[in-house]
Write a structure and sequence with these properties.
Shape: globular
CATH class: Alpha Beta
CATH superfamily: Glutaredoxin
Oligomer: single chain
Radius of gyration: 13 Å
CATH architecture: 3-Layer(aba) Sandwich
Structural class: alpha+beta
Order of helices and strands: EHEHEEH
CATH topology: Glutaredoxin
Length: 94
């Protein structure tokens, strides 16, 4: 099974960045650990990665999928909406 990748791009230690990180941790628990790689990238520390990924706003969650990558901007507080937008089925273990 190939791991799926979620990348959270944040800018420093702002309240919004911290909230997005906390919500991503909740999302990770909801999804389970199997088959998921999760990375957090601080664009202040790694502007080259942000530029390469064409990140123009933070926080941005990127779902790296070979079929169709998806992104959502915000603090990820509406978990159901985040899952729906990203097209992630909680029961999908494939």
């Amino acid at each position: 099974m190939t791991a799926r990748l979620l990348r959270l791009y944040i800018a420093g230690n702002s309240a919004t960045s911290r909230r997005a990180q906390q919500n991503l941790a909740r999302l990770q628990v909801s999804l389970g650990a199997d088959g998921w790689d999760i990375e957090t990238i601080d664009v202040l520390d790694r502007p080259d990665l942000a530029e390469g990924a064409r990140i123009i706003a933070t926080p941005t969650l990127s779902y790296e999928n070979t079929a169709r990558s998806r992104r959502i901007v915000g603090d990820l507080s509406d978990m159901a909406r985040v899952l729906e937008f990203l097209g992630i089925d909680r029961k999908d273990e494939a």
